[in-house]
Amino acid sequence: MKQVTFAEESQWVESLRSGDAKGFEKIYNHYWAKLFSIAYNYTRSRETAQEILQEVFVSIWLKRTTLPEQLNLKGYLYQAIRHKIYDHYDKQVVREQYAVNKALHEPVMANTTEQQVAFDELNTLLDQQIEVLPETTRKVFILSRMHGFTIPEISREIQMPVKTVEYHLSKALKFLRYSLADLLILIFIVQF
Q1: HSE-CB of 139 using CA atoms within 13 angstroms
Q2: Which domains does the chain have, with CATH numbers?
Q3: CA torsion sign, 75 to 81 to 84 to 89?
Q4: Distances in Å between the alpha carbon of 183 and those of 59, 97, 101, 145, 180?
Q5: Closest CA to 141 of 105, 177, 165
Q6: Residues 101, 102, 106, CA angle at the centre, nearest 5°?
Q7: According to the 3-state scheme, what is the secondary structure of 62-79?
Q8: pLDDT tens-digit profile of 152-189?
Q9: Within a 10 A sphere around the Cβ of 162, how many other Cβ atoms?
Q10: H or E stretch including 166?
């Protein structure tokens, strides 16, 4: 990546702020490869990395009139890509939680013996994997997913900071997602 001076970047930002597509194009051309590399290193997916970059650059264009005059462009872009990567993972966790909850709680239309056995195996394995979790992580997971407590409610219940509760819940979901992934795939294949 060619070195650019702060003055050059300031001109690009000023051009962008005034709605000139050339300023946007210079920012895009200069930072695209580095930002793509960061996104790809986290996601390991070219498509996902490109989607994240597209979101970052669309956001910059839409917010162009509100960008500060003395903007550290490189820092701003790196922070923007980091936030979009976090958003991507948050959305992914929500989709996976939805799939697991749907698989566990939705009644099976054609309740065959094979499906019932697979469902029972999943519940047994889920219970076994929950028991493997460290005590605090297990308690947070059970309060959240089995008793329907919100994170602030869990925080009050077990007298733990909200961020710590979020950490334990994230840890539990990540562990369960990886430990049960193969069985979930088999269950979905059996159902369809």
Answers
A1: 12
A2: 6-88 (1.10.1740.10), 107-191 (1.10.10.10)
A3: negative
A4: 39, 15, 14, 19, 6
A5: 165
A6: 120
A7: HCHHHCCCCCCHHHHHHH
A8: 999 998 999 989 999 988 888 888 777 777 656 655 55
A9: 12
A10: helix 162-191
pLDDT in tens, 15-57: 999 988 999 999 999 999 999 999 999 888 999 999 999 999 9
Rounded CA-CA distance 6/32 in Å is 18
Measured distance CA(20)–CA(27) in Å, rounded: 12
Whether the Cβ atoms of residue 33 and residue 1 lie closer than 8 Å to each other: yes
Cα–Cα distance measured from residue 69 to residue 14, given in angstroms and rounded to the nearest whole number: 7
For 91-110, give the secondary structure using H, E and C. Answer: HHHHHHHHHHHHHHHCCCCC
Contact predicate 174/98, CB 8 Å: no
Residue with tokens 């979009």: 84
If we measure between CA atoms, which residue out of 25, 27, 29 comes closest to residue 10? 27
Output the six-digit token pair for 71: 């903007």
Please give the single-letter amino acid code of residue 104. L
The backbone region for 107, taken as left when phi is positive above 0, alpha when psi lies in -120 to 50, beta otherwise, is: beta
Total-model pTM? 0.51
pLDDT in the model for residue 34: 94
